Each structure stands twice: as C-alpha cells, then as structure tokens.
Amino acid sequence: MPPVEELPIRDIHLPEAIGWFPPAIGWWLIAILIPVSTYFLIALIQRLRQKTAIKDAKKLLKQLQINDSLTPLEKVCELSILLRRVAISHSTDSAIGGLTGRAWLDYLDSSLKNAPFKNGIGRCLADAPYQEELSPDVDLPVLFQLAQTWLAAQHSNSRRRKKSA
Length: 165
Hints:
Helix content: 55-70%
Strand content: under 5%
Oligomer: single chain
Number of helices: 5
Mean pLDDT: 86
Largest sheet: none
Shape: rod-shaped
Distance between the termini: 89 Å
Radius of gyration: 32 Å
Number of strands: 0
Order of helices and strands: HHHHH
C-alpha cells in the first residue's frame, strides 16, 4: 500500500456566538405594543369609570327627586353630597373635596354659563347643610333640573378633555 499523504485540511471552525443585539422583530413589537396597549387600557378604564359615575349620579338624582320620605332640606343636603361625590370622582384635582361655600359654588359654575349656582337657585347648596329649615324661595324642581344640567355638562366636558389631549 502506498503511503498516505496528509491533505492540507484546516481544522473545523465554529461560528461566532449569536449576540443579543439586534433583537428579533418580535421583541421590537413587544417593546412597542406593551406601553401602547397599557396607555389605551388605562384611558379606557378612566373613560368607563367617568361614564358610570355620571350615569349612576343621574339615577341617584332621579331617586332623590321622587323620594317622599325626605324633607326638602334633606333633599337639598343629599343633592349637595351627590354633586360633591361626582365632582371628586370626575376631577383629577384632589382639592375639590375640601371646597366649601363660595369656592364650591364657583367650582360648580365653572362648567356652566351665567353662574346659576353662585347667582341663582344653586346658592342654597352652600347654605342648606347648616340651616334648620329650607328657605321657602327654594324651588326644588328647578334645583334638580340645574343638577341634571350640571351632570350633563360634566359628561360633555370629559369628552372635550379627551379630544384636546
């Protein structure tokens, strides 16, 4: 047998290890989709919460209006509490819960024209909780209509805020 010649063969070279950068397209999509979907989910939850707060307030307002077991003074006090609860749940300002008197009426008037709370029938909301009897010049149906108008304005204000943002 003839002698075997050694062939000029190189040793096996392994490829370089795969680096972490650049990541595959799936990782880029995940990195983009998680923050975007989180933002939209939070916005949806806030919008649903605002809608349900106003919707619940309208139902409570109707129940309060037809409740014959309450005196007119108690109805006005409960109406003031209802409007305050809606304002607290609807606004991002934490100071609203502490507003009283003229400042509370100014806040209520901020979403309506002609200042019906400060200059009209709504001013009884600031004084009623501290009185023993309701003033005879307070017209409850007009006051409840003003509260409905204010609730409707809160709903439309939240829509305008969403469009401007």
